[in-house]
Amino acid sequence: MRYGHFDDDQREYVIERPDTPLPWINYLGTEAYFGIVSNTGGGYSFYRDARLRRLTRYRYNNAPLDVGGRYVYVRDDATGDYWSPTWQPTPERELDDYECRHGLSYTKIASSRGGIRAETLYFAPLGETLEVWRVRVTNHRDTPAELSLFSSIEFCLWDAQDDATNYQRNFSTGQVEVVDGVIYHKTEYRERRDHFAYFACSEPLAGFDTSREAFLGAYRGWDRPAAVERGSAAGSIAHGWQPIGSHHVRLSLAAGETREVVFLLGYAENPRDAKFDPGSQTLNKTLVRPVIDRWLRPETVEQGLTALKEYWDRLLGGLRVRTPDGDTDRMVNVWNAYQCLVTFNMSRSASFYESGIGRGMGFRDSNQDLLGFVHMVPERARERILDIAATQKETGGAYHQYQPLTKRGNNDIGEGFNDDPLWLILGVAAYLKETGDLALLDEPVPFDNEPGSEVPLYEHLRRSLRYTLERLGPHGLPLIGRADWNDCLNLNCFSDTPGEPFQTTENATGGVAESVFIAGQFVLAAKELAGIAGLLGRDSEEVYFRAAAEKMAGSVAEHGWDGAWFRRAYDFYGNVIGSGENDEGQIFIEPQGMCILGGVGIDDGLAQRALDSVAERLATPHGIVLQQPAYSSYRIELGEISSYPPGYKENAGIFCHTNPWIMIAEAIVGNGDRAFDYYRRLNPSAREEISEVHRCEPYVYAQMIAGKDAPTHGEAKNSWLSGTAAWNFVAITQWILGVRPDFEGLRIDPVLPAGWPGFEVTRSFRGTTYEISVRRAEGATGRVTELLVDGVPVAGNLVPVGAPGAVVRVEAVIG
Ligand code: GLC
Ligand code: GLC
To answer: How many angstroms separate the CA atoms of 384 and 177, rounded?
Structure first.
């Protein structure tokens, strides 16, 4: 069952009814000011950091679901009837029609009731720290209508964590000012904050409110605010408690008339020595007032929208595919690329599942997200790499997370996730392959942000590799530390206390737990670093890195192979995990993917054997589960993985992030049918028709789909912010379609499903545009056998770097 449809021309997903199984959200903002917005107007806004600079409140885990957002009530002043055109928070008041269009960084929600149509467009313009709500109200009756609009938001007192916990203080700190129809939220501005929020309206006000209790009435909810019911605002000024913003505007609409009202919600900063009007505690508004005036004008709003559209045309224009599969085209050309950019901006901070409070930027997460956006925003990827690398320690170890606002490593979580450092090599390699910008390697980057400790970035990469080599266990495999990619395989933790965090609780000492996953990742990273050393002419280092990769591959073959698949790990006691010897958790997906990505087992058939085991034991119609059999009880020596009920999350859920590794591995061994089949099982657009099962948004990937051991098999959770976005993008574009940036040029190495006659790709690469067409020779099942670059045959499958600005025609034949 579907709840909407894709409008491919507009690049929008159109939701046709408000009661989607879960809130289906979208993101506003592109650089510094952000918000999440659901299909019923729910969500919140923040400036840069979803925890420390939260503008508006949102209550997760609320009942009803998803109440709290950017609401505009419409009231028919003749009858007293009122409703919210976004359905929430007045779902009892039925709408005659409803439509939500989630587009690229904007959302439009339109509906009608009793002949009055209201359409609200939400977006955050480029280069500004504000969001626009453009409300268009049309009177479709054949008589005039006397209407009121009431806007509403609930301010957050900046630090979302404190706001949701420290009530003894924050019930007393709230402060606002209302001047010339603009509501200013200035809690803590009187002391150490130099920033404030504002909420403005383009029309003369009939009234306003800033106290939640005055607006809603005591013991009343957003479904029936007293001010709206009455038809007049109270003119309240909040002193402590819950500051809100609400404007009351009256509209008289002739039959058939449309009126437009603009609301602005924004964030502003003042210079510390000019915070107040001279000699007072009144906010200095000289900087912000012109911004407000400009954005309240309809023509500025129009220009802002056009600029936003052009921004997305530019970002998405660099890679466009035309394949025989519509779901592939739609995801690659629009939605998957969009999701990759969102993960770039958000990391794992703010979604319907991530509260914006808990997690900063992940070291490994950000490096992997980069794989999906580096081709769209290379300069920002460069910046991101330097930020991430600056949180690395001199030992080569890395903070697991850092705060986006301070860019400092997060001490609460600390380090010791032994896969982390290697991801930096993989992120940098992806950047270099895309851009050819070797100068990045010379950039001075500090350790742990300590001024004076700078060394060239290249040295950071060497330390990453050394970090692993200095931490090998009895089988010559890398020690796992707190965890590897799978944060929930905590082999040194041994927690028996409820609520203790598995990742940060003191590890047992003397552990020898080893990870076959990190071993595979090391082989891959060492080969990449060897490639980089080669580019720099550091020949002896190249040889050394290759030898290290070989040696590790040897340890994997010797101690990491279980007979029909790669093992997962050795635990604290040296017992094998992910083996036929185990009663549960016999086979895991991660080492199958990562070892083959590293090139282990390709020549001797182990890779093929492992992939057959994945197909037999892990694959389901909804995707590939993380391991089998699921752990049926808690195992202290394994940690969090066994804390989840079977089929969920890391305990045999379909942890989507890992599936593309298998798609890539299948492509590496040349099995296009299987690779693409796995791709389609996860593709959200291909799952649209089972939305009642999948339940999450059909336009973006989710982190997890419940596995076959779960009663809700097929149900997705944790949509949007997941490495799944980047890896699926890489799997389909670089390995199945096979258009893959490499150090020396653009590789064309498709591995197609049998039914495809070919496909076309337009790809910008280092300033050149490549028009690529791939054709399959009758009955052929292999790889590229013929390559023409501007009509000239080229040996192999590498298209050399072209002239900047040129358009190059590439024809490839699969023979
Ligand atoms: C979450 C984390 C990621 C981890 C994964 C598997 O997605 O953000 O870092 O690799 O879970 O545990
Ligand atoms: C929890 C989640 C896991 C995530 C980790 C991050 O363990 O289950 O997916 O990686 O938290 O801290």
So the answer is: 38
Please check whether residue 596 is in contact with residue 610, taking contact to mean a CB–CB distance below 8 angstroms: yes
Q: How far is CA 48 from the centre of its chain?
A: 15
Catalytic residue among 487, 571, 709, 749: 487
Please give the structure tokens belonging to residue 401: 């997370």
Q: How far is CA 213 from the centre of its chain?
A: 36
Q: Tens of pLDDT along 729-775?
A: 999 999 999 999 999 999 999 999 999 999 999 999 999 999 999 99
Q: Is the pTM for the entire model greater than 0.90?
A: yes
* Cα 476 to middle of ligand 1, angstroms: 25
Question: Does the Cβ of 319 fall within 6 Å of ligand 2?
Answer: no
pLDDT exceeds cutoff 90 at 405: no
Long-range contacts at 602-607 (CB < 8 A, ≥ 24 apart): 602/668, 602/669, 604/557, 606/557, 606/561, 606/566, 607/665, 607/668, 607/669
CA of 504 to the centre of ligand 1 (A): 15
Structure-block tokens of residue 331? 């995801």
Q: How far is the CA of 487 from the centre of ligand 1 (A)?
A: 6
Judge contact between 747 and 797, C-beta under 8 A: yes
CB 562 within 8 A of CB 578: yes
pLDDT at residue 359 greater than cutoff 80: no
Q: What's the mean per-residue pLDDT of the chain?
A: 97
9 catalytic? Reply is no
Give the closest residue to 419 by CA, choosing from 384, 471, 455: 471
Return the number of other C-beta atoms located less than 10 Å from residue 126's C-beta. 14
For ligand 2, whether the C-beta of 649 sits within 6 Å is yes
**Tens digits of per-residue pLDDT, 179-228?**
999 999 999 999 999 999 999 999 999 999 999 999 999 999 999 999 99
Q: Which two tokens stand for residue 655?
A: 């942890």
Q: Is the peptide bond before 684 cis (omega within 30 degrees of 0)?
A: no
Copy the structure tokens of residue 641: 């993985």
Q: How far apart are CA 625 and CA 618, in angstroms?
A: 5
Distance, in Å, from the CA atom of 505 to the CA atom of 500, rounded to the nearest integer, reads: 7
